[in-house]
Amino acid sequence: MLLFRSDPMGGIHELLPCGLLGGDLVKLFRKSKSKHYWYDFTVRDERYRGSTKETNETRAQKAAALKLAAAIKGSDPLDRKPPTLREYSRDFLEWVETGRLESDTRRYYRNGWRLLDQTKIAGMRMDQITKDEVVRLKFPGSASNGNNALRTLRRMYSKAKEDKLIFEVPDFALFKEHGRSLRLNDEAERRLSAVADQPLKDIIVVMRDTGMRNARELYCMRVENVDFDAGTIFTPDSKTESGRRFILMSSRMKQILDARCAGRSGGWVWMSRYKGKPGRYQ
After folding, report:
1. Which of 125, 146, 162 is the last residue of a domain?
2. Is 176 among the domain residues?
3. What is the percent of the chain where pLDDT is above 90?
4. CA dist., res. 206 & res. 190, Å (int)
5. How many angstroms separate the Cα of 155 from the Cα of each of 76, 89, 233, 257, 278?
6. N or C terminus of the chain with fewer C-beta within 10 Å?
7. Residue 236 lies inside a defined structural domain of this protein
8. What are the φ/ψ torsions at residue 232 (nearest 5 degrees)?
């Protein structure tokens, strides 16, 4: 068994097996059914025990020393325990609402927490949630929906680390996503238009002829950004910088937009049932 001592300056020193030098000790040992070396030490009355993931003794010593240094650096002088994920969600959601984030990002994180709040790990302390716990999580819907939750979890951990509530972030992979397989072709447009009411019928035409993103571009079209003389639509806000662009109108789009914008010099193209808001048709 190998022992180490940490000094006030942050150094790690090997001790004799008797451990007579005192201080915080790291015990390095092997389990009978494990090929790796394991560490065991206590910092501020909290025990740390785990595998170094190393089979070489010298590398295991270094790994154990790094674990001890990290525990000492990350320990709270007031002996405060890390919060549960649900407890920390209050601070996280407050930051989401008040931070300099895009509205879509806020909505993304709020929905991510809604999914996480229904899982077992929501009630667990953040320092006790392991990679294995995260890997076992299941979410309703598609892989994209699950990744919404996992990306939110990643951001919560990185924010908690910035706030010095934790010092280690679990590493976990996202779900594998598959690209869209359906296309809005002639047949799809014909079948949708047969059952769609207005303004969805017109939206389908504009969606197909422009390729505009639904929420930030298509639904938020404004009359003042439609130039009938030039035959273009300007999108001032988009997901990316290159998304700010002029889009050419097809002949059938001109007919649709001419009818919807007639007599108006400004305002939303797609009128909503809520006054002053763009039409949010799904």
Report:
1. 162
2. no
3. 43
4. 14
5. 22, 11, 36, 41, 30
6. C
7. yes
8. -135, 160
Report the distance separating Cα 267 and Cα 277, nearest Å.
Answer: 9
Contact (Cβ atoms closer than 8 angstroms) between residue 150 and residue 134 = yes
Q: Which domain holds residue 142?
A: 85-162
State whether 251 and 200 are in the same domain: yes
Residues paired with residue 42 on neighbouring β-strands, in sequence order: 47
Judge if 21 and 45 occupy the same domain.
Answer: yes
Quick check: helix, strand or coil at residue 184?
coil
Asked whether the whole model's pTM tops 0.85, one would answer: no
Same domain, 24 and 63: yes
Question: What SS3 class is residue 7?
Answer: coil
What the block records as the tokens of 94 is 């407050």
Structural contact between residues 18 and 9, judged by C-beta atoms closer than 8 angstroms: no
**Where on the phi/psi map is residue 41: left (φ > 0), alpha (ψ -120 to 50), or beta?**
beta
Enter the tokens of residue 242. Answer: 């290159």
